[in-house]
Amino acid sequence: MSVPIMLAESARDRRRALAFVRRHVRRLYGGIPPPSQILLYAEHHRRICGTIALDFADTLERFPLETIYRIDYAKTPWPFERHKIAQFGKWWTARPGVAIPLMHAAHVHALEQGKRFGLVEAKSQIVTKVKEFGMSLVEVEEAILKIQGVSSRGEGYYAIPPPPRLYMFDIPINSAALARYIELQEGP
Questions:
Q1: Whole-angstrom Cα distance, residue 137 to residue 72?
Q2: Which strands sit side by side in the sheet containing 85-93, from one edge to the other?
Q3: How many domains does the chain have?
Q4: Could you list the residue range(s) of the whole structural domain that residue 62 is in?
Q5: Each residue of 60-74: pLDDT tens digit?
Q6: Which of 18, 57, 153, 183 measures 20 to 30 Å from 31, CA to CA?
Q7: Can you tell me the distance from the alpha carbon of 98 to that of 105, in angstroms, rounded to the nearest whole number?
Q8: Cβ distance 86 to 163 under 8 Å?
C-alpha cells in the first residue's frame, strides 16, 4: 500500500495536519504540542493518517527542544552546529504502513535543506522501534530535562513514565537504512 506523503504548504493543509496531531496528543497525553515550522503528512481517502514535523534553526536561533533540555554542547555525539541540524517531532500515524514512508520523507526533506544531523526526543519504546528499521539514535549524554521548560500544553507527555531522552542521529545514514527497509518490505 502506497500512501502519498505531502508537505503542508497551504494554511488549510497546516491546520488539518496540526488538528490530527493535536487530536492524538490530547487523547494520549492530555496536551497540545506547540506548532512546528515544517509539517509533512500522509493522506488516505482525503483524510490525514500520519504526520511528522521538522524544525530548523540558524546559528543564533535555538531549537524548541533546547528550551526543554539543558544540553552540554561539548558532549553531543556530533558538533552542535544548528545550521546542520533538523529537529524531528510530531511523528503520529493512524494507519499501518504509513510510519516508515513518513519518516523517510522527513529525512529526505531535511537532506534537501542541507541538514546533516537530526535532533529528537524519544521515549525508550520509540528508540527500540526505530532500531527495528535499521536506524541509530545516539543519546545526548547528560542532557537534562527541564520540566519548567515544558509548556503546560504538553506536560502530559513528560509526566507519563518513562520520561523521554534527547538523541541525535546521522540523517544520511538513517535515511539509507529507511530506504533499505522500505525496499525489503516492498519486495522484488
A1: 18
A2: 5-7, 38-44, 47-56, 85-93, 117-122, 165-170, 138-139
A3: 1
A4: 5-186
A5: 789 999 988 999 999
A6: 57
A7: 11
A8: no
pLDDT digits (tens, 9 = 90+) for 153-187: 556 677 778 889 999 999 999 999 999 999 988 87
Q: Report the sign of the C-alpha dihedral through residues 65, 79, 86, 60, in that order.
A: positive
Distances in whole angstroms, Cα of residue 182 to Cα of each of 97, 104, 130, 140: 10, 9, 13, 28
Grid cell, residue 141, equals 549524554
Asked if residue 156 lies in contact with residue 164, where contact means CB atoms within 8 angstroms, the answer is: no
Cell numbers of 63, please? 531549537
Residue 72 is part of a domain; what is its CATH number?
3.40.630.30
| Closest to 5 in 3D by CA, of 36, 49, 67 | 49
Torsional class of 99: left (φ above 0), alpha (ψ -120 to 50), beta (otherwise): alpha
What separation in angstroms does the CA of 108 have from each of 18, 41, 69, 122, 144?
A: 21, 14, 26, 20, 29
Task: Give the three cell numbers for residue 77.
Answer: 555525539
Average pLDDT over the chain reads: 89
Three cell numbers, residue 178: 529507511
